[in-house]
Design goal:
By secondary structure, the chain is an alpha/beta fold. It has 2 domains: 105 residues, Sandwich (Immunoglobulin-like), CATH 2.60.40; 159 residues, no CATH class. 17% of the residues lie in helices and 37% in strands. The chain is built from 5 helices and 13 strands. The strands form 4 sheets. Strands 2-9-11-10 form a 4-stranded parallel beta sheet, with helices on both faces. The longest helix is centred in the last third of the chain and has 14 residues. The chain is globular, with a radius of gyration of 20 Å.
């Protein structure tokens, strides 16, 4: 039995960065908490970062996490630089490469955008609320491989801590062209991975999200906690007012593309 084990974060999860300058790639850094198990006390625990797509590429060499750790289950916190790309995290004890434990899928550190609301917000991730038959392919939308989503709408089951985040696509969970194009714009503006998280509930009063104890409030709180409890806010994004009836999806897409994200700043959830 290995002396070291770990519980991997959800695949393609984005961790909100805490700073936007400095660190290894000049784009700031964020913290990633990992639950590990030690079968015996260890003198030194280290981590390194590898590129999840080019797994032989080491992006951050072995770095000290802690020393003189007791046996048992515990949480360690790693400071990881923000970048455009996915990480694999390796851990080892006492400098012994044979003890290495590795996360099982890529994770990112960058910008996390949260949203909550009624049917319009449901449309952020789904085409169901508006019965929209448009697809990414039909509108020429190409999703960034560095943008992923985690959401729930209209009473569907909430994602759990191990639920994979997904890049929006015509065949996946998040089929909205909004999610794909919005994340592409955030990735392009910020230069780091980006996530779009939240809850939508069609045909409800928006106050259900802000009153403690209400079902939507509890659902949103649970999802934000699952996503790490920190998210960013965007400034410099023009609000697009839609007439009734709404214009064609291709028109909306042109409006969104003509409105660049000017700046990005973060605040805790």
């Amino acid at each position: 039995m290995s002396v070291l084990s770990l519980i991997s974060p959800a695949p393609l999860r984005i961790f909100q960065r805490d700073t936007r300058t400095g660190s290894s790639f000049g784009l700031g850094a964020g913290t990633v908490a990992l639950t590990i198990g030690l079968n015996a006390p260890v003198q030194i625990l280290e981590f390194q970062l590898r590129d999840a797509q080019a797994t032989n590429t080491v992006l951050l060499p072995w770095t000290l996490v802690g020393s003189n750790l007791a046996a048992g289950s515990q949480t360690v916190t790693l400071t990881i630089p923000a970048r455009l790309g996915w990480y694999l995290i390796d851990l080892r004890v006492n400098g012994d490469s044979t003890t290495t434990a590795t996360t099982n899928a890529g994770i990112g550190v960058g910008e996390v955008v949260a949203a909550a609301g009624q049917s319009l917000v449901t449309d952020f991730w789904s085409t169901a609320a508006s019965y929209d038959t448009s697809t990414l392919a039909s509108l020429g939308v190409v999703a960034s491989p560095y943008g992923s989503a985690l959401a729930s709408w209209d009473g569907a089951a909430l994602p759990g801590a191990t639920t994979a985040w997904e890049v929006p696509s015509d065949t996946g969970t998040y089929r909205s062209t909004f999610a794909a194009e919005f994340l592409r714009l955030v990735v392009a503006a910020a230069g780091v991975n980006a996530g779009l998280i939240g809850c939508g509930h069609s045909g409800t009063d928006i106050s259900t999200y802000w009153l403690p104890g209400m079902t939507d409030f509890l659902r949103l709180s649970s999802l934000l906690s699952t996503a790490g409890g920190k998210f960013g806010t965007l400034s410099g994004v023009r609000v697009i007012m839609m007439p009734t009836p709404a214009p064609a999806p291709s028109t909306i897409l042109r409006q969104l593309r003509s409105t660049p994200v000017i700046s990005v700043r973060s605040s805790p959830a």
